[in-house]
Amino acid sequence: MSINVQPFGDQAILVEFGSSINEETNKEVRKFSAHLDASSPEWMIEYIPAFTTVTIIYDPLYISHQVGGETPLPYEWAQQRVEELLSKNAIDRNQTDRTIEIPVSYGGDLGPDLSFVAAHNKMSEEEVIKTHMAGDYLVYMIGFAPGFPYIGGMDEKIAAPRRDDPRLAIPAGSVGIAGAQTGVYPIETPGGWQLIGRTPLRLFQPEKAPPSLLQAGDHIKFTRISEDEYKSMKEDER
After folding, report:
1. Which positions carry the signal peptide feature in this UniProt record (predicted)?
2. Backbone angles phi, psi at 138, to 5 degrees
3. CATH number of domain containing 132
């Protein structure tokens, strides 16, 4: 695998592990992220993992103090440290795969766009639900909103375009489809995804550590519950 390291603004480095989104590339992203967690270099402010990249924000003042105003420049010094970290990244960091079961009440008031997704793909609503539950899903990254999972693995047979008129407020727990991706809204937020159901699980709880139920590398299995079961589980989650 060819890894590209390049400057990204005035105090960041972009480490690119590939140009296409796939599970193997994302595994390298997660492995390097675990390495950064374990080493926790003092010159690093934070890092941001994505589908195929890790962005490292560094502290140029700390680096300038370390090098005493001499060459190399802060970026060059940080780049050397990043390449050293990458050279030690060959060890598998014992990534543990988790499978998180997410119960969903499909259709009705909780999934108002299920009929659109079915009509768009010339399928019945039941076929859409069964296809959605049958997917082999992987959380590639967390972003957009706190705890929002970017999920891969949805069958393109149920793909659907975003809404022409995005909603101003989508309830937390809403399960949606946009293009060839499915996702779960962890908090109430505006959005344009087609909503096919809702889960009673709380995906983001800021009082917990970690606050996000889902993490990059998790596998997801969607299961079906009734609206009554949804209401009962929702009460238990409060």
Report:
1. none
2. -130, 135
3. 2.40.100.10
Whether residue 209 sits in one domain with residue 107: yes
Q: Cis ω on the peptide bond leading into residue 74 (within 30° of 0)?
A: no
In tens, the pLDDT along 131-189 reads 999 999 999 999 888 999 999 999 999 999 999 999 999 999 999 999 999 999 999 99
User: Do 119 and 217 share a domain, yes or no?
Assistant: yes
| Whether 130 and 217 share a structural domain | yes
| Alpha-carbon span 194 to 39, nearest angstrom | 41
- Beta-carbon neighbour count of residue 176 at 10 Å? 24
Residues 145 and 118 in one domain: yes
SS3 labels along 66-116: HHCCCCCCHHHHHHHHHHHHHHCCCCCCCCCCCEEEEEEEECHHHCCCHHH
As a whole number, the mean pLDDT across the chain is 92
Instruction: Quick: pLDDT tens for 174-191.
Output: 999 999 999 999 999 999
The last residue of a domain, from among 37, 55, 87: 87
Strand ranges in 9-52 using DSSP code E only, listed in sequence order: 12-16, 44-49
Residue 225: C-alpha distances to residues 107, 132, 134 (Å)? 11, 14, 15
pTM: 0.83
Alpha-carbon distance values, 219 to 31, 77, 153, 195, 213 (Å): 16, 37, 10, 21, 12
Q: How many domains does the chain have?
A: 2
Domain that holds residue 10: 4-87
Token digits of residue 42: 């003092």
Residue carrying the six token digits 């390291």: 5
